[in-house]
Amino acid sequence: MNRWVRLWSAFVGMVMIGNLQYAWTLFAQPMVKAHAQQHWQLSDVQWGFGLFIAAGTWTMPLLASFIDKTGPRVLMVLSGLLCAIGWGSLGHVGSLTSFYLLYSVAGVGVACVYACGVSIAVKWFPDRRGIASGLITAGYGMGAAAFNPLFNQLIRTIGYSDTFLWTGISHGALILLAGLVLVNPPADYRVVTAAVKAKVRRHDLDFTYSEMLRTPQFYFLFLAMLSVGIGGLMVTAQLKPVATNFNIGDAALTVALVLTPLANGSARILWGWVSDYLGRERTMFTAFLLQSIFLLSATTLGRTGDARFVLLMVLVFLTWGELYVLFPAVLADLYGSKNSALNYSFLYSAKGFASLLGGGLAATLFEKTGSWNYAFFGSSALALLSALMALYVRRIPLPQKAVQPALSVQPSMG
């Protein structure tokens, strides 16, 4: 089967799981309102958003190890079931504990698909790793552009509870079907590469996760990914509450809910393509610096009109989504592609920490201060830090495996 068929099948699965993250902002306020008698607050449900992502990212090492050894098909089938049960049941929870548990179950399902999708891109496209990773993760970020208006309409017509149920069933089924054609390439798989190579450093060694975790380069990348991930996840979770606080009209919010996922997905394709020619590090610096500027501008220009708010939110996503393309590509460049799924799962766990900060903590800051400014200021500063760190990535020495001391054999004295 053609490798592009497998890539686009994984793309479909990524679109489905992306909705569980990027449509969430539409459900947050209805859930708070529905549980007013239980005194639920925005921060309560947004901690659930953080746990949803954290549960997925923190279980990815186990999932990725399975993918590298046996392939993605079984995990994709399992993911369809987990997403259907976890997401589909959220409208019928009776307590925060059950809400956190079920949304976390869906998060594990999302992690299965994400790990499989990234692995397919990296393993089947060693010659075009940047653009393939961009395409596959674009499904995760861009698919909500088509589905957010549908989710919004369903919530208004049948209620948020039934919307959870029916979208959970349908999304789970499509994930399961998409997974049936996904397999790892054979051990002797090779692709003829072009004579002109990209401006990218690549290691000629393949590292296991334990070897990778013993190198300082990994922790440098982890901190950089954590720092730039917070702002976009905050806007993902809080887009509708922020728009309400900024007095943005419903029509403008609807437009933002369509355009921001398109910008998110486009960022992954655009910056992934650019990185194959300009280089990962220069691309990271440029995109992350712009991200910092746009997050900071949202606190001022974003309040001055519907059009400016929509434009700034689009620009935030256009300079954020690429981190999920550039970091797995950089990691594979430094540590090899043989164990790429498992290796990236450890780096991807930074998203779990970022989601807790951008989801629960940002909402808590808003409830205590009455302003979203502090959350935007902090995330802007961290994006700037990541941009500056990117300048140093190119200068970091390629990681080296620890040399094992040779065992000396003593002559027998007998």
Please name the defining characteristics of this protein:
mainly alpha, Growth Hormone, Chain: A, 17 helices, 414 residues, disordered C terminus, 75% helix, globular
State the helical fraction: over 70%
Mean pLDDT: 86
Mind describing the biggest β-sheet? none
Oligomer: single chain
H/E topology pattern: HHHHHHHHHHHHHHHHH
What is the CATH homology-level superfamily? MFS general substrate transporter like domains
What are the low-pLDDT stretches, counting only 5+ consecutive residues below 50? 406-414
Number of domains: 1
The number of helical elements comes to: 17
**How many strands?**
0
Task: Please give the structural blueprint.
Layout: H1 3-22, H2 24-34, H3 42-70, H4 73-88, H5 96-124, H6 129-142, H7 144-158, H8 160-179, H9 209-212, H10 216-245, H11 250-278, H12 280-298, H13 306-318, H14 323-335, H15 340-348, H16 350-369, H17 373-393
Could you walk me through the main structural features you see in this protein, from its secondary elements to its overall organization?
The protein is an all-alpha fold and 414 residues long. It has a single domain (3-184, 209-393), classed as MFS general substrate transporter like domains (Growth Hormone, Chain: A). It is 75% helix and 0% strand. It has 17 helices and no strands. Helix 3 packs antiparallel against helix 15, helix 11 runs parallel beside helix 13 and helix 12 (280-298) runs antiparallel to helix 13 (306-318). It is globular, with a radius of gyration of 21 Å. Mean pLDDT is 86; it is low at 406-414.
Compact overview of the structure:
The protein has helices at residues 3-22, 24-34, 42-70, 73-88, 96-124, 129-142, 144-158, 160-179, 209-212, 216-245, 250-278, 280-298, 306-318, 323-335, 340-348, 350-369, 373-393. The chain is an all-alpha fold and 414 residues long. Helix 5 (96-124) runs antiparallel to helix 15 (340-348).
